[in-house]
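Progress against Task 2.4 (sequence-to-structure conversion) is shown through the following example record, which the project officer requested during the mid-term review.
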Amino acid sequence: GYNFADKYVASFTLRRDGSSNLAPGHRWGTFPAFGLGWHISNEGFLSGNKYVPDLMLRYGWGVTGNQNIPSGRVVSTYGGDRGDTFYDINGSNQSILAGFRQAAQGNPDLKWEENRSSNFGADAVLFNGNINLVFDIYTRRTNNLLFDPRTPATAGIADPPIVNIGKMENKGYDFS
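Structure tokens generated for the chain above:
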């Protein structure tokens, strides 16, 4: 972080995260973020102003990653239990042997879900501290959404693979 004369503020963050929930070639993600601020009320033209004693404009941008899925879904898994995959080989109930079935389909290409956010905002104290205002305009774009689909019963009993699909965008404003 950097602060110059309590007028200009800057910060930068860089994260490097790893997850065993994702494919070997996509396990590591780099997530940067930065913020800028201008404390306008500390400029000479606003110093001592009793109507706007504190005013700051700010901008922020950053990327975060999501890997919030069940572990072990990169590879297909197999399992079974009595009444499910045990077999009577001779038909005499004396030779029941354990069998296996596919329990979940893996996806060897799973990637980080990425959220790119930006916001522009202002913080103001008005009339000697009697009114505090905060205003933000934001945009959040999500890429490679992690999706754990449900399949119809006719597709079998193995869990389908988790996949990265689509994009989503949220926009809006906050005011308080």
